[in-house]
Amino acid sequence: MTHLNQRSSDASGSIMAVALAVVGLMSAVPAVSRAEGTGDWQFAATIYGWLPSIDGDITVPTGPLGGDGGNTSVNVNSSDVLSALNFMFMGMLEADKDRWGVATDLVYFDLGGSKKKVRDFTVGDIGLPAEVTANASLDLKGWIWTLDGTYLVVDDPDHPMKLLAGARMFDLSSDLKWRLDGDIVGLPLPGRDGKGSASGTVWDAIIGLRGRVMFGEDKKWYIPYYADVGTGDSDVTWQGMLGVGYAFDWGDLVAVWRYLDYNMPSGDAVEDMTLNGAAIGVTFHF
Known about the structure:
The protein is mainly β.
C-alpha cells in the first residue's frame, strides 16, 4: 500500500469543542416570540470561492512488493506537492417558509501538482538516504455535499438563529506517481517508479446551527457563523465558519474562514482529512 501522509488532527478534542460551543450558544439564546411570517417561500443562492489548505492521510494501493507478497508503504507530505488548482466550484441554495427551511451546499475541487527532489518522503518508516531524492506528482478530486433541514429558533431581526439536521457526503479520489533518483539499494520498493490511486465515499449525519449577528447604525453589517458535528461512516466530522458580511439592496457580500475536519476509521482509503481556509461569496435573495 502507498500511504500519503499529511497532517492529521485531534478529532476527539475537536468534537468536544464544537459540542460545547453549540451548547453554550443555545444556553445564551434569549426567549424570543416569533414574528408573524408571510407564508411565502423565500430563497437565497450563494456562489463562493474557497481555497483551503488540505491535510490528511490517504492510502493508495500499488500492488505487492517484490516476490514476498508484502505491501509497499511510501509517505510524502502533500504540502510539498499540491500547488495547482485545476478546477473548483462551490454553491449554496437555501429555501425558507416561516420557521422551516432546507439548505444544500456543494463543493467540487480538482487539485494537482508535482515536486522535484522532495526530501519529506519515506518508505515505510524509513526516511530517504541523503543521496536519494523523490520526484512526486499528486492529483486530488473531491465532492463535498451537504443537505439539511432547518428550524428558526430565534426570530430576532438582529440575531436570527437556526438549528439544522441533515447529512454530508465526502467523496475523494487520489492519484500519486513518484520516481526515486539515487541509490535505492536496500529500500523496500519494487523499483524506482511507482504509481497508485485510491478513492472513498463517506456519508455522515450532522446536527448544528447557523445564524448571524447584525451590527452597525443601519444594520447592514453582520457576522455570519456556522457549526456542525456528525458521525456515520466517519468516526467524527465537524465544520465551523465565522466571518463578516454586508447587505446591499441586490444581495450580500460575505467573507468567512471555513474549517472542515474528518476523522475516519483506521484502514480506510482516507483516514484523516482537514480543509482549512478563507472563502468569499455573493448571495442573491429572491
